[in-house]
Each structure stands twice: as structure tokens, then as C-alpha cells.
Amino acid sequence: MSYKEQDPGTGTYYYKKSKRLILQDGSFNVERIGSFGRFRTLYQWLVDTSWSVFFVLTGSVIFLFNLLFALLYLQIGLENISGAMVTHDGYKDLLTAFHFSVQTFSTVGYGALSPVGESASLVSSLEALLGLLISALSTGLLFARFSRPNAKLLFSNFALYTSYKKTDRKSIQFRVANKRSNVLMELEATVILSLEGKRKDGTYFREYFRLPLEVADIHFLPLTWTITHIIDEDSPMKNLSKKDLLEKEAELIILIKAYDDTYRENLYTRHSYHITEFQWEEQFERIFRVNNEGGFTMDVSRIDALKQKESHSE
């Protein structure tokens, strides 16, 4: 039985030796240049990036925006801001201008500080207008991040090349768990093996094989799911040693589809294991147990836990 696949969309011929196709975070190892729609790309990046990066970047933009206008108010002169006390101390005056800038930017307007004269009124009007625009953009991005459904599947940091259930057969295994407490249903896993080869003319090519799985789909994922490919007579890995897999830059390309019961939508998650991220002849340790109340307790942080090998004394 042949499990060879055509080009899955990542190309089959290359002029130089390539590395992994998909990074561990699920993103493609592709640098895009010369593309259009930079604003759209920036918007997508701001929606996709981590929360910490989003808040640091948003906070920095707002801070620098207010600092810029604070310097403008200082240039105009604090005497053009009613209620501002001019101390001729650079730091204190900047702090006063910054506070006025924040009030104008946020349209709070406590009443203690207000612009006087055409210059200050013009700058404050411009800041209020731009402040509304930045606030609207920040709010829109925040809503887009909250409302965007995305799967948070946690993958083990490595895959295993190990014995299958204490038999002579070998297998490839990796483990996934739901990082969130929401319900994922009707999960389907697709695993493709990518192998690199070299032609006589010095160019490189890749071959792709869909690996049959012991269990390719499950109905629910409340605990962990160990996805297993058994290396039998029909497996494309049956005659490949560890050295062969390293030379061929072997990579497991993984796609998992799931239905999110919270958002009522199908979600997709990509992942990859390069051959350098394999552990050999190890076994995963079970990370859930039955508690005293008869329910289950699972420590998701131990998804990489391995069984301790038995030591035999002479």
C-alpha cells in the first residue's frame, strides 16, 4: 500500500538544502518579500501576536504619542495652558504637560487644565482627534483578538521513536492536550512525513508520505491524546534508520482539526517535529489520575513527562 502524497503546498524541488517547513509554533518557515497590503499584514500580525507583545506595543505607542504632544505643549509654553504652574524645572514642567496630554488624548478633561490661545487650542484639538482614532483602533484590535476563535492545543515538546506497547514493532508518538478548559469535539489528525533527497545535478527534492495512525480521530479531548504511527511493513519509515532520518531532514507535519463548542466553529492547528526534536526509546508517562471523588485530575504542565527507565542490578 502506497502512502505517498503529492505536493501538499510546500514545494518538492529546491536548489539548496532546506531545513524544516513548519516551525514549532505552527507558522511556516517562509520569509515573504514584495507582498502588498502592508496595513493588512500589520493588522493580521497584531491580531495573531501574543497578548504580552500586544499590550507592550499598544502601551508604548500610546505613551510615545502623549510624550510627543507633551513636548509640543512645552514648545508652545505652559503659560498657554490654563491651570498649569510653570516651575522652570524641566522634569516637573514635562510632567505637567504630559498629564495635560493624557487628559486631552483620552478626552477626560477634568477641568483643572485647559488650553489658552490659538496655538495650544489647535494642538489640543489635533491630539483629541488623533486620540479618538488611536483609541478606536486599539479597541477594534482588542475586540478582534477576543472574538477570534483559535485552538490552544498543547503539543509535547518532542516526538518519540519508541517501541509499540512493549512489542518488537517501533512507533512514532507525540502527545497533545487542550490548554484551555473549553470543550473540543470531533478531532481529526493528519500527519505527513517529509523526507529530503539530493539529485545528481546537485538540486534537492522532498517526498511526502501520509502516515496511517493508530487512532486518527477522537470524539472528545478532556484528557490527553497520544497520536501514534506504527512502523509496520507498510510504513514509509520501515527501512529508515536514525542516521537515514537525520540525513533526509525528516519532519513530521501535523494538522489537527477540531470543533470548538464555545465558538461553534471548526478550528485548525498546525505543528511540526523536526528529526532533531525526537526522543529515542522513551515512553510517555500518564499525567492524569482518578481523584478521591471519582473524577479525573490532569497536570497539563507535565505533558512532556516520561516514564523512568527500570534499572536492573546484577
Automatic annotation (TrEMBL):
<keyword id="KW-0407">Ion channel</keyword>
<feature type="transmembrane region" description="Helical">
    <location>
        <begin position="125"/>
        <end position="144"/>
    </location>
</feature>
<dbReference type="InterPro" id="IPR014756">
    <property type="entry name" value="Ig_E-set"/>
</dbReference>
<dbReference type="Pfam" id="PF17655">
    <property type="entry name" value="IRK_C"/>
</dbReference>
<feature type="transmembrane region" description="Helical">
    <location>
        <begin position="94"/>
        <end position="113"/>
    </location>
</feature>
<keyword id="KW-0851">Voltage-gated channel</keyword>
<keyword id="KW-0406">Ion transport</keyword>
<keyword id="KW-0812">Transmembrane</keyword>
<protein>
    <submittedName>
        <fullName>Ion channel</fullName>
    </submittedName>
</protein>
<dbReference type="Pfam" id="PF07885">
    <property type="entry name" value="Ion_trans_2"/>
</dbReference>
<feature type="domain" description="Potassium channel">
    <location>
        <begin position="76"/>
        <end position="146"/>
    </location>
</feature>
<keyword id="KW-0813">Transport</keyword>
<keyword id="KW-0472">Membrane</keyword>
<keyword id="KW-0630">Potassium</keyword>
<feature type="domain" description="Inward rectifier potassium channel C-terminal">
    <location>
        <begin position="154"/>
        <end position="308"/>
    </location>
</feature>
<keyword id="KW-0633">Potassium transport</keyword>
<feature type="transmembrane region" description="Helical">
    <location>
        <begin position="51"/>
        <end position="74"/>
    </location>
</feature>
<dbReference type="InterPro" id="IPR013099">
    <property type="entry name" value="K_chnl_dom"/>
</dbReference>
<dbReference type="InterPro" id="IPR013518">
    <property type="entry name" value="K_chnl_inward-rec_Kir_cyto"/>
</dbReference>
<dbReference type="InterPro" id="IPR016449">
    <property type="entry name" value="K_chnl_inward-rec_Kir"/>
</dbReference>
<dbReference type="InterPro" id="IPR041647">
    <property type="entry name" value="IRK_C"/>
</dbReference>
<keyword id="KW-1133">Transmembrane helix</keyword>
